[in-house]
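HUMAN: Mind making up another protein with tokenized structure?

ASSISTANT:
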Amino acid sequence: MTQAAGTHGPFDVVRIENKVVRLAVVPDYGAKIIELTDKRSGRNWLITGTPTEAAGDDAVFGGPQAYGWDECFPTVAPCPGADRPPATRDHGVLWGRPWCAKSEDDVVTTTFDHADFIFSRRLVLDEDRVKATYTLENPGDRDLTYLWSAHPLLALRPGERIRLPGVDIASATYVKACGKVASPSAMDWPAANINGHSIDLSRVHAMESGFAAKLYCDTAPPSDVTVEGADGRLMLTWQGDVIGALGIWLDYGGWPDDRPVHQVAFEPTTAPADDLLSAQALGRHTVLSPGDRHAWRLVFALEAAA
């Protein structure tokens, strides 16, 4: 069932739901997904928030913007010097800007048309699953070089467990522990040693820990990551040749410095890098030729507690 369902600040909301899942999308605010609710438990798995001014080229993705599920493209961190498409804005060009939307039954499709690309995401509900299918087209006459990352910020609870099958090491691009920012490095998963302190990365910690880290794990699709708790399990799986890594954002009061938050993100991505130029330096950037298209898929499964 699809319905127009109120507003999110000044923006209209489109909601789709079935007997198990309720999903809410804000097309004119970056097609941000603001609700991923398991109707059996009443739990919205996404961080909630309120919209801010976010359409400008100089917009910064800070604490007030860090909620819901956005798409980062063609970079995550700001990326001076990339020329096609312009990739200087923090978290890319898509978030906070209007997308075209079509919805019917249990499906909502949002599309962002740019001079250099057409980015589309189709969301479908299937019992306890949300299936997100992506297509990226290059309508131009030059190669399109890009980095994509999903950015679903999850409202997890202390003590819940993150399961990451087949992974025993992760690379870190940012770590803050015990009030200090550590040098980025490789670390064991899940039992990491940071600045001489042992931390279990698979356990969701409390806000008071002040810990934050951005990690990457190389993965070969299809792959999955799961969080388990008293309300059941949330499993994310991904498929597609362009997806080469999983980013994990763990923030238990360690970011931002002025108004710390508690959030976790599982971020399937095309490269284990925070920005497009870093992906290029690693030789892990993705190139879409003129007239071609790339496609990939994510699936969130909401499994009820036994």
Observations:
- The chain has one domain: 2-304.
- DSSP finds one helix and 25 strands in the chain.
- The mean pLDDT is 92.
- Residues 2-304 form a domain with the Beta-galactosidase; Chain A, domain 5 fold (CATH 2.70.98.10).
